[in-house]
Specification:
Blueprint (H helix, E strand, L loop, with lengths): L9 H7 L8 E5 L2 E7 L4 E7 L4 E5 L4 E8 L1 E6 L2 E6 L3 E4 L5 E5 L4 E8 L3 H11 L4
Antiparallel strand pairs: 1-2, 2-3, 3-10, 4-9, 5-8, 5-10, 6-7, 6-9
Length: 132
């Protein structure tokens, strides 16, 4: 590292860096839990999906990217299913119907939503015991 940058103070670090394990777990549905990290214009979801869990087909106005970190699942996008595994990324445009079915083992994934999902942030506030 060059000397042109100053190391952040502990207080600055705490205000800038999120340790995912420290974020309360939010239950999205039976068999699917996540750590939600909100941003100004996007929301991150670090999800764990139990084996054989089915997320019903739905849509929302948010663009979504699913990054599969561990396990395998079938992702349904616009009436077709795609078998995905660790290392695969699935872009889902806003307002497109989509869902997923985990396979015989748990699946870990990161989801990125834009614009920010305010209802996810509300679930995080409820899990944290904080008010809006």
């Amino acid at each position: 590292m060059t000397t042109e940058f100053v190391r952040a103070t502990d207080a600055e670090w705490k205000s800038q860096v999120v340790t995912v394990a420290d974020v309360p777990i939010v239950n999205l549905m039976p068999g699917a839990n996540t750590h939600i990290v909100p941003g100004r214009n996007m929301t991150l979801s670090f999800a764990t999906v139990d084996a054989n869990t089915y997320a019903t087909v739905h849509s929302h106005p948010h663009e979504q990217m699913m990054i599969i970190l561990k396990g395998e699942m079938d992702v349904i996008v616009a009436g077709k299913y795609y078998h995905v595994k660790a290392g695969d990324v699935v872009p889902i445009p806003g307002d497109i119907e989509h869902g997923a079915q985990a396979q015989d083992t748990p699946c870990e994934l990161v989801e990125v939503f834009s614009p920010a999902r305010k209802e996810f942030e509300e679930k995080l506030r409820q899990a944290s015991g904080t008010s809006a």
